[in-house]
Every structure is written in structure tokens, then in C-alpha cells.
Amino acid sequence: MAGPSLEQWISDLGLQQVNDPDVDKPVYRIPPPDGRITFSAALEEIICTSIREARERRNLPRSKLAPLLGLSEAVLRPLRNKRFPPDGRPLIHLCEVLGPSPEALLAPAAPHLWGENQSKVDLLLACFDKLRGFDDETLQDVFSLLNRLGKNGRAAAAAVARR
């Protein structure tokens, strides 16, 4: 059983063919709301910037990052030139084509980043999915509620649950 053709998958998923100058074959992406698709080189730059900012927030010198990861500095050298190692580039494309959020795609590989047990991981991922469906105003209300809960702790959460 062959299933749907490639063209049918592309149509069903709402993908658009993109001729990315850094990829020698067509790539199929979900067009963003503004219609501007970010190509591979720009994605690499964004990922590298994100990594650099996270490293800087930790006050971690670049020279210490590679040994902490069990890598040689040569492996991470492309990050200095805003080039991401090729095995990390497809993450956004995978999420667009396969449908899951980055969290859902990465959580099975590193569940400890989302919670101390599988129940919490599953609940947090379900919350992310719900949040993505909210409009801006509802999302702002949820964020305000979360801020209040964070300040007042479990007592506030219990009061909300009793309502």
C-alpha cells in the first residue's frame, strides 16, 4: 500500500515549495503568516544567536562550552561565524512538515528539560498545545494568571482550583 503521493502530502500539509539558496533540492515549508520564509542561512544565524545569548546569560565563556559538552572547540567553531552544525538545522523544517511543536519533538530525547516525571512532561506539552490555540487577549490573561500564581504560590493555585 503506497499511500498518498508526495504531491498529496504537500497539499494536505499546506506546504509550499521553497528554493532555499543553501539547499540544492527543493524544500517544502509552511509559509509563515507574514509570507516571509526564513532560509537556512538565516535560520542558522538565529540559532547561533540564541545559543550565544543563552551562553552569555550563564556567564559561560565560549572556551568552556565545548569541553562541557564533551566536544572539541573545532566542532563549535562554526557558531562563531553564525553557522550551526548541519545536524541541528532541520529542526524548524521538521516541525513544519511533521506538525509537532519543537517541545514535542525534543521532549522525548530530553524529558528532564520539561519535568521531573513523564506525567509532568505530558501535562506541560498539553498546556503548550492549548496555549498555541489561544488568541492574544486570552493568552495575556493566562500569562497574568501564571504571574499571580508564581507570586502567591500554591495557596493562590488552590483558591483558583476551588472556583
Shape: globular
CATH architecture of the domain at 1-99: Orthogonal Bundle
CATH 4th-level superfamily of the domain at 1-99: lambda repressor-like DNA-binding domains
Q: Give the termini separation.
A: 52 Å
Largest sheet, in brief, is: 2 strands, antiparallel
Question: What is CATH's topology name of the domain at 1-99?
Answer: 434 Repressor (Amino-terminal Domain)
Proportion of strand residues: under 5%
Percent in helix: 55-70%
Give the strand order of the largest sheet, numbering strands 1, 2, ... along the chain.
Answer: 1-2
Mean pLDDT rating: 82
User: Which series of helices and strands comes N to C?
Assistant: HEEHHHHHHH
CATH class of the domain at 1-99: Mainly Alpha
Q: Could you name the ranges where pLDDT drops below 50 across 5 or more consecutive residues?
A: none
Question: What can you see in these coordinates?
Answer:
The protein is mainly α and 163 residues long. The chain has helices at 6-13, 40-57, 62-68, 73-80, 91-98, 102-106, 118-132, 136-162; strands at residues 16-18, 27-29. Strands 1-2 form a two-stranded antiparallel sheet. The longest helix has 27 residues, at 136-162. The chain is globular and about 50 Å long.
Summarize the structure.
With 163 residues, this protein is mainly alpha-helical. It is built from eight helices and two strands; from the N terminus they run αββααααααα.
Quick tags:
mainly alpha, 8 helices, 163 residues, globular
Any chance you could write out the topology, listing elements then pairs?
Elements: H1 6-13, E1 16-18, E2 27-29, H2 40-57, H3 62-68, H4 73-80, H5 91-98, H6 102-106, H7 118-132, H8 136-162
Antiparallel strand pairs: 1-2
